Structures are given as C-alpha cells and as structure tokens.
Amino acid sequence: MNEKKYGDMTEQELRTEIANLKEKARKAEQLGIINEFAVYERKVAMAQAYLIDPSTIKAGEMYRITGDPGMFFQVEYLKGRFAWGYRLGGDRYEEALPISLLEALKEGK
Question: Burial code of 55-68, b = ≥16 C-beta within 10 A, e = fewer?
C-alpha cells in the first residue's frame, strides 16, 4: 500500500483522510483502546495542519491550545507545519505543536 504524505494530498483528500481518522478514533474510544485513540487524534491534528496556511501563525504571539482549556502557547518559531515554543505556566521546556492545535487569542483575526 503506497500511502500519500499529507503534504502531497489535495484539500479534498485531506478532508477525506481526516474524516476516516476521526471515525477510527471514535471506534477505538468506544472499544476503550485509549492509546490507539490518542494516535488517531494526533494524526487528525497533523492532517488538519496541512489545511492551515502557516503564515497565519506568527512567531512571538500567544495562542490558545485546542482541546486544552486555559492553556496558552507562546510561539517562538515555525518549522514546517509545527510551531515551536513554550506552554505558559509550565516548566518552559521547548516543544512543537501542529499548527492546527493553535487558536488565535484575538477574535476575528
């Protein structure tokens, strides 16, 4: 099976892939297979990152983290579809998040 990389997929192919992954995640969750559920959730976030224009994420800005209420992320720089930076209130260790997990603080961008 020769699977395409997310970067090589069209928008429609990405949306189909995301729907398939979400369905697999739902089934894994229903079956109580938490580690499998987490893997599919991560794959969904990665595929969604390819639907976002990286230029909409700005270094030096603060973002909310989707699915993690009250948690904020300070973007230091971008590399591909990942934003590198620090969670506020954490141990300030650098980490990378798919850009699809970042929400602008300012409404209406």
Answer: eebeeeeebbbeee
Encode 53-102 in three state secondary structure.
Answer: CHHHCCCCCEEEECCCCCCEEEEEEEECCEEEEEECCCCCCCEEEEHHHE
At 34-92, the pLDDT tens digits run 999 999 999 999 999 999 999 999 999 999 999 888 899 999 999 999 999 999 987 88
Query: Which is the CATH superfamily of the domain at 54-104?
Result: Hypothetical protein YfhH like domains (2.30.30.340)
What is the fold, at CATH topology level, of the domain defined by 6-49?
Helix Hairpins (1.10.287)
